[in-house]
## 1
Amino acid sequence: MNPIIRFENVTKRFGALTVLDNFNFEVRRGEKVTLIGPSGSGKSTVLRILMTLEPFQEGLLEIDGISYHEPGGRGPFKASETHLHKIRSNVGMVFQSFNLFPHMTVLRNVVEAPVAVLKMNRGEAESRATELLRMVGLSDKKDHFPSQLSGGQQQRVAIARALAMRPRVLLFDEPTSALDPQLVGEVLGVIRDLAHEHDLTMLLVTHEMRFAREVSDRVCFFDRGRIVEQDEPERFFSNPQQPRTREFLSSILGEQEQMRESLRCAQ
Amino acid sequence: MTWMQYLPPLLKGAQVTVMISLSSIAIGAILAFAAGIARTSSNPILSGIAFVYIVLFRGTPLLVQLFWFYYALPLIGISFDPITTGIMTLSLLTGAFGAEVVRGALLAVPHTQLEAARALNFSKSYTLWHISMPQAVIEMMPAFGNLAIQNLKDTALVSLISIADLTFQAQSMRNITLDSATVYTLTLLGYFIIALCIMLIVRFIEMKLRRGPAFPRSAHS
Amino acid sequence: MMYGYAWDTTTPLTFAISILPILGIGLLVTLQAAAVGYAIALVLGLVLALLRRSRFKVVSWTVAGFTEFVRDTPLLVQLFFLYYVLPDFGIVLPAFMTGALALGLQYSAYTSEVYRGGIEAVPRGQWEAATALNMTRLQTYRDIVVPQMIPRIVPALGNYLVSMLKETPVLSVVTVLDMLGLANMIGERTFEYLVPLSMVGLIFLPMTLICSALIYAIERALPKSGIPLR
């Protein structure tokens, strides 16, 4: 089967800084992949490029067989709005800072894009949105505004909003990093449920190692714009091959153990 | 003559002042949105035209603009009646200042909101009108309020192209009665009262926009 | 002053060049009016701002009402008021001084708000720290408050200078022969307004643009944390 996502020798620079260097990466349909690594290692950039939020300078990128490089387009990587529109219809994204629209109710946040972009009729969109909000456990909040919700609730609305567009690929960019520790669980719970969806391809950037181990089919360790090591989670966590992976894992696991310990003490 | 007798002509003038001010604020607002949005456009021609318009009208004195439209333009065959000239000039000036307000407010919408809109595949114009603008408009209101007051004060200059506004009536009354202190005090009070009304209207609109829990905290204190 | 001049109206260009010297004289008047008016605005505004902070409610409210009133009424009417009413009280000033006074008065209402905002933006904790260090009121202002105000108020004050510069042509209404006054006079003589009025606009444009750019540069150069006076 063809991979749904294919990076081939992709290079991405911010000015003089090379974030991705000849990057190669493939994701199978329905696969759940977790990207971990130190900050600035390029893992979020992979998601942002996939979402067309960042251009890249060299190489080839395909989603479901569609190249990001528009055939006959105005030069490389300068695709037209129509082409970008086609690419984006495959992808959804959940942001670290939720990015809900503050001037719309929860329901409206979820309904807006299906009506405006997918041209769904409003009634149908609303019943689907209600269903999605029930799934994330927020049916009673649909007439609230984002500012009235906790961070965890906002992030769950954001997940419902992304799902309402029926993406084949769903990207999670550190979805729990902006949350208070006691709110992390409710968001991870929703993502865990989603991981059971057979058809949905998920790319998850996170620092929650235990969670990564639990939900992913594959874990990739990033360092300086390259994947240093990747494996299925059991092997990856129990027996990392590369010294840099080991170093990273021991430091981050130590930190999280400390955090849990202090939370336990606080309670 | 007592000050009571000054009131009818001054009130007549005040009517003209209010009419000119309101219509040039309305037209100016439309120009402000058009030019402000054009300035943020990625189309270089559109944003270039808006830039030249804004710089030209913000960078030169209103009185020079007014005389230019009133005295100079007819010499190359383009002429309007004084009222039209007055409203047109004030609208263009208010529009140029307002455009910078619109542009500033649009640029102040958090970048993350635009990314979220892109991730949901909204078109550029949909994002502008349904995501950016509703959030930006509220931030524009205090600055628009100041521009409206500035516009009201600027209308006094149209008396110099023979429009019978409040200032013009005051000048005529003074020339007849030579009672400068009373006439000008009443005139200043007249402008002050109109200004207070404009402030109330702007405050009311802002309150309406900000009502509800969507924007619970005032960004301006 | 203009009787000796003859202007070459053959083409717009020769006309423009021939009126340049006289507009230059007008420019000088314009700049002088702005300078005097601005000096008045800076000083009077400061007085108003300090009175506004007075402990006596009567004083602070009166000053607040006065500034609001001046800020919300037209410069032109204020100018007429001073021009025609002051002589009734025996105060006869040259038109130029009356004009500069009107400019200064109007803009003092703006500058006083800038000063006030600047003072209020200094956090309470700074005042409390100064008190804790046993500083006098004067020392607190001189060493703590004013240095922190400067980066905040200088750009705002600068922008009002540009605004005032653009309002100086109003003085031509009370017979001051600034650039616009002279341009109008040339227009009346030659029945040719297009060139003189365009010239005035074209001279103002670079002036205001350069001033704005300078203010922006100063704003960028000022350290955000403040400038010690001593």
## 2
Amino acid sequence: MFLSSLIILPLITALTILLCKGLKQVRNVALAGAAAQMILAFSFLIQYWKERAAGNTSQMLFEYDHTWFAPLNIHYHVGIDGISLAMILLTAFVVIAAVLVSWTMEKLSKEFFFLLLFLSVGAYGFFISLDLFTLFFFLEVAVIPKFLLIGIWGSGKKEYSAMKLALMLMGGSALVFVGLAGLYFNTNTATGAYTFDLLQIAQMHIPVDVQKLFFPFAFVGFGIFTALFPFHTWVPDGHSSAPTAASMFLAGISMKLGGYGCLRVATFLMPDAAHAYAPIIIALATIAIIYGAFATMMQTDLKYINAYSSVSHCGFVLLGIGMLTRTSINGAVLQMVSHGLMTALFFAAIGMIYSRTHTRLVAQLGGLLKVTPFISTVFVIAGLCSLGLPGLSGFVAEMTVFMGSWQNPNKLYRLATILACASIVVTAVYILRAAGKTVMGPMSSAYDKLTDATWNEKLAAGLLIIAIIAIGVAPFWLNDLIKPGTQIIMDKVLSLK
Amino acid sequence: MNNFIIALIPLLPLATFILLGLFGRKYFKTSSGIIGTASLLASTAISIYTAYKYFFVYGKVNGVYQPITALKYTWHEFSPNLSIDMGILLDPISMMMIVLVTFISLMVHIFSLGYMKGEDRFATYFAFLSLFSFSMLGLVLSTNIFQIYIFWELVGASSFLLIGFYFYKPSAVAASKKAFIVTRFADLGFLIGILILGFQAQTLDFGVLIQRLTTAGSPQLIGITTTSFLGISLLTWALSLVFIGGAGKSAMFPLHIWLPDAMEGPTPVSALIHAATMVVAGVYLAARLFPVYAISAPGVLEGIMYIGAITAVIAAIIACTQTDIKRVLAYSTMSQIGYMMFALGVSKYGGEDGLGYMGSMFHLFTHAFFKSLLFLGAGAVIHMIHSNEMKDMGGLRKTMPITHITFLIACLAIAGIPPFAGFFSKEEILLAAFHGNKFIYGLALLTAGLTAFYMFRLYFSIFWSKQATAEDNLNVEGFASEHKPHSEGTWSMKIPLIILAVCSLFAGLVPFANYITSDGASLATHMDLTFSIAPVVLALAGILLAAYLYKNESDKSTRVAALMGSFYKAAYRKFYVDEVYLFITKKVIFNLIGRPAAWIDKNIVDGSVNLLATTTGQISARIKGIQSGQVQSYAIYFFGGIIGMAALFIYLWM
């Protein structure tokens, strides 16, 4: 199959939007484009299953390789395995939901939807890249539009937040680039040329001291994207100032770019260093989980609550990667998908509440279940997913991380696992406090006339909820999808012991 | 028998939940009650049929009931030997539980048809009831320790939804949060216990797990007992942690604080969840893993015994002082579950020594009937009086004859008066305690006397006491006159009361020891009349004392309370356990962990980021003057540089 269609399709959609006139045309094109993305993503899933059923066991499917810049041996090399496919599906779901919740975006609608779809170009490109240079290129594509989205359509102290987010993520990219360049100059192919090719580098053995030197650059660089403590402070400000759709994209997809990079690039290509730095990764991840959870407990703004809880939940991703067991890595990937869907749903619900009540402060809200049962139910479902209720995706992902982490017999790591487990109690506290005050309890008479969700909001929430339940009720399909990919990574990591 | 039909037992309520949850408000506003009840009726019928088949047709092999895995499906595989399998386990206790859960749930459904009539969120209510029934049935049928954890959490969530059903009442919201968070805290122990057990036994399947951890000399048992942490073996850790989970759900002291508050939910819900089914989940879990506790970790089992007995006594004392009738029943439930727990604790595995196990399960069985009857009866009273307070009640025996008689039967049953159901099960427990541990036996006797006293305090206060007429009762302030019901409720409310009263009368006659024992082989029990004298006399004394104090309106009870002084006050304030919790959560955790974490994040972590940015900004502001673009100033720097370097060279050369 033609993998590059995943990049071309959103690009065409974005360019078509520029030719449109008025909000109606713009949003219809955007929705059609997002729907087409989703169809494409699912057709890749079906093709993938077919290939695997036919016995194709190669690591990457649908590969395409074309020399991009010969002097530096840069290729446009794409291909996907189950992990990338899971991320692609996640992106498709979040993008369509983001388009739907922005249905009435009056202000500079053309530019807004253009940027939104342009972001998805970056995300898809990143997930399918097998060449480190192209991967980096798409990472950058997925950063810059966010600056504009927050700076122009944001709220609150948006200039500060936009600047902070852009600078911190740019800093992360810079670190990533150092890490990638370090890898590049230490490769040696049969022809003697350096290479950026991920699969080729994976076959080589990069000298251990080189790995130890460049692993921190790559891991911290990507880690900043996924809220690695203490580089997480862009998350609360960035999310809270961003317009709803941008928050959804930011938390749902952008933070996953980091986790994916930590796994696919840092850990897979520098496994010796991953072993060596595991204690630090685990320590930072555990701090993020516990500290993020307690910090969430003290927040009063719904968006800050979800942003800090994202710090805590993304800690599970890093914990799973740091533990380096087959199960924990699976858990990390499951958590990426689950968190992406859940946090997008949460931000969507918060956006719906905000657009009606014009406040996000928990103290000012109350009893919304009475007037807006649909939105309130969505809010509660997102909350329950966040606190790890079985039947929703969060439970499966967290339990896999816990189970996998426990398989690492190191006593201190087990203590870290216990601390991580303890965070689910804190999560229950802050989620129930937020839900208990926002959708339950007595209602202020000011909210008597609120209207419930419109069709587009219902569709957006419905799609995300279906995906969350599809993973929560039947986790085996996703687990089977990602397992071959994570096993190859772990084969390489564990062969070193 | 087709195993998929058994799967319908939990799946029918699930289907009802989905149907009513999605479309109930729109399409089944009035019919949702009937739909829910009908689906549960079908579930009950299949349960009874399945249990019948198990107990009388195929369950017994060579005189011993065997556990049978009827269905098993790998749901989520962690690693090749650790996977969550969704399945159905048929064994004596799971069979008893499905019958009990479906039956009580059915009674509650029927009762709710009348009780919740006219409620705005009628369909939602039945959807939640169905969700709860599904979760509870899934829990009892679990084949896998992770499967039971999944349903365990779902039960907690549906309990949260039902307690918070009146979501606009702040007290209901607070109670639902409290219930969820306290049990969640306990479940953390359960989860870590599962992690240890799963890793050490290399399986999550109950059957294999129990077999590996009870066979002397198996590598897994050696591994888990020889590895220790802080000087305590991993097995002890794991089983204690799992029990903490069970203690949370079963409201064992000191994790009980959520149960009395949970009475904020609609009363039929209290009958179903907080009396007969969910709160016994902890007992069920301990019974499920009983062989491991009894054979490999008797120390933990002893701990369970003490916690159960202490809970039984403390809750009984508190129950004597409460004035809200639902809270009295809540503490009574706590006390009776304590009974079941210590009965497990005094028991050993197999044969005659397993009497406590059998007694515990027997009491679980009979308790479900009379306790749900008590709650539904209380519900009928509250429905009529519109108040939970004893002082608003009195003399209701004439206006509510059916409620009165059925309530009396339930009170006699729980007090352990022969030949009512509670007598038989309590007798087995007392006998087991007598042989197991004399101290526990003493506490159990004390509790038996207290139980009879507080139950009849409740009975006399509701149905006797004031010689008031119904009209007087209805003039209690706080409800409008148009709400005055003229009778004791609809037939849909009375029928469950009558059915449950019949069960409370006869459930004790079931030859329980033939069917449910610790090792599956039937057990010969003998009723020793002389042994029964002490508990029955104590119970009668309790009843007489209650009659003396409460049958007629007088100030005798207040005088007795005054005599007890500060002890009465402490019991009335529930021994200040809630206050201790409040102090720890509000003062310690929020102020010492939460606030500093938020402060550090804002000021130190983010502060250093901002500091970096401002420093960069300031430095660049200083440096930018240098690159002013003015040729004159560049010339000055240039010549200044030359002069400086010349001076340097001259200095060095000199």
